[in-house]
Amino acid sequence: MxxxxxxxxxxxxxxxxxxxxxxxxxxxxxxxxxxxSSSIESGDFQRSDKSIGELVDFLNSVSDAVVSEPDEDSPExxxxxxxxxxxxxxxxxxxxxxxxxxxxxxxxxxxxxFACVSRRCLEIAERVIxxxxxxxxxxxxxSILCEALDSPSTMFKVPGYFVPLLSGLSKVFVSIQRRQFxxxxxxVPVIVNVLKAVSSELDDGDTDYEDLLTRSIDxxxxxxxxxxxxxxxxxxxxxxxxxxxxxxxxxxxxIGLGYKVSSxxxxxxxxxxxxxxxxxxxxxxxxxxDVDIIIARCWRTExxxxxxxxxxxxxxxxxxxxxxxxxxxxxxxxxxxxxxxxKAKLSSDQTKRWQAIGMLRNIFSxxxxxxxxxxxxxxxxxxxxxxxxxxxxxxxxxxxxxDMPSIFATLQAIQMVIIxxxxxxxxxxxxxxxxKVLADIPTxxxxxxxxxxxxxxxxxxxxxxxxxxVREEMRMENCQRISRGxxxxxxxxxxxxxxxxxxxxxxxxxxxxxxxxxxxxxxLPEYGDAVLxxxxxxxxxxxxxxxxxxxxxxxxxxxxxxxxxxxxxxxLRTLVTGIVAANQxxxxxxxxxxxxxxxxxxxxxxxxxxxxxEKLKHVA
Length: 620
Known about the structure:
620 residues; 76% helix
C-alpha cells in the first residue's frame, strides 16, 4: 500500500537515502506523509484532515523560510529536497487513489509556493501538479487550481507562485469532456484577475512575469484546442470567450513588457494567431465592433452575470492588437491582416474612422502603458487622419453626435500625451494628431468641442494651445470669406459655415479666461500662457472686425467694448502692474522668471487697451 511504497521509494534512490540519514527535514516530511496515508486509508476523516493540515503547515514553513532568506543557499537546497520528495511520493504508481484525491485539494497550492524559490523548484512543482491532473477528476482540478490562484498569501503574490498553477490549468482544460464553455468561463475571470493583480505590482526586470504571460498564452492555445472539438453554438461561444481572454492578455503583455518591443513580438504573434482563430479582424477590433459582438455572444443568455466586469482591458487589447500589427509585419501576418488595407478603409470611411478615434483613447489614457506604444498609437492615428482623407458631410451632425463623447474623450487623452510625454517628438506628433482629429469633426461642432476642452483642463499651457486653435480656425474662415468676396460660405450640404466661429462664442471664451467663473482677474503667473493666448485672440478679433467693417462677434458694440475694458483689461492691468512692481526689487531667479513670463503678456495687454480706448472714442 502507500506506506510500503513510501519506504520502498526512499530506499531505491541512493542520493535520497544518503540525504535522508543526515537531513531532519526529510525525516519530518516522511513522517507527515506516512501519517496522511495511514489516516486516509483507514477512513478516519478527522485524523486525515489534521494530518494533511500538519503536512501543509510543514511545507509552508519550508517555503516561507526560503522567501524570507532569498540570498541564502542552504534554504534553497532544503526546499529542493522537500519538493523533490513530494514529487517522488505522488509519482509512485502504487499510491492509493484515495490518498491522491485527498492530497490534491491542498498540495497544488503548497507546492506552488516552492516555484518562487528557483527554476529547478519550479520544474518539480509543475511536475507534481501535472501528476494530480493526470489521475484526478478534471472538474475537481479546475476548481482546486482556481481556488489556489484566487487565494495566495501576501508573501507569495508574485509571478513565480502562479506559473505552475496556470500551467496546470492549460493542461486540464483539454481533458474536459462536457460543459466546456461553462467550466472555462468560470476559470477565465480568475486567471485574468491574477494577471491584473500581478501586473499592478510588477517590479522592473521581473523575469518571472514573462513566464507567467507565456503560461497564460498556453491557456489560450489549450482553449483553442477545446474549441476544435466542439460544434455549432458551443464552439461559437467558446471562441468568443477565447477572443476576450486573448485581448486581455494582449493588454497585460503590453503593460508589463511593452517597453522592450522586440521581446514582445513572439508573444504577440502567438496571440495574433489566436485572434485569427476567433475570426476577429483588425477593422472590427479598432472600431470596437468585434468587441461588442463577442461580449454579447458570451453573455447573451445569462442574466445578472458580472464576469464581464473582469474584462476591463478588452478594448485596450483590441486597439493594441492593431498597434502591434502596425509595429511589426510579423504580427500582422500572424493575424492574416493587410494593415495597409485597414488604414485605407479607415481613411475613406468617416464613420469607421470616428469609431477608431474613439477607441484609441483606451491607449492614450492608460497610465501604465509604456510611452513607446503610445508613440506608435499616435503614429497610427496620424496615418488615418492625415493626407487624403474622405469627409462626407451628409447628416454629419447626427452621425458625429453619436460618436462625439468617445471622440471628445480621445481628444482629452491626447492632451495628456502632449502634456506628459517625455520626448519632444511624441509631444509634437500628438499635437499634430490633436489638430487633425479636430479638423475631422464637422465645423458646426468644432467650436463647442474646443470650448469644452478648454473648460475641462487645468493646464494653462494646454488652454493656450486650444485658444490658439480657435484663433487659427477663425483666421482660416476669414480668409475663405475674403477669397469668396465676402459671400456666405456654403458647405457641401449648404449649411452656413461662416458663423461657425465668427459669432459671440470667441468673446465668451476670452471672458472665461480673463475673468474666471470664480470671479476676479486670473491667477498670475500660473495662468500666464492662457491669459496671453486669450488676449491675442481678443486683439485678433478686434482688429479683423475693424478692418473688415464687420461685427459678427459683437466685439465692436459699445456694450462689449465697455465690458472688455472695465471687467477684463483694466483689472488685469492692475494685477500685472502690481506683480511687476513687487518683483522688480528682487534679483532672485524666481523674480526674473516671473518678469520674463509677464513681459509679452504686458505688451499685448497694453495694445488691447489702446485699441479698445480708440474704439470707445469713436463710439462716443
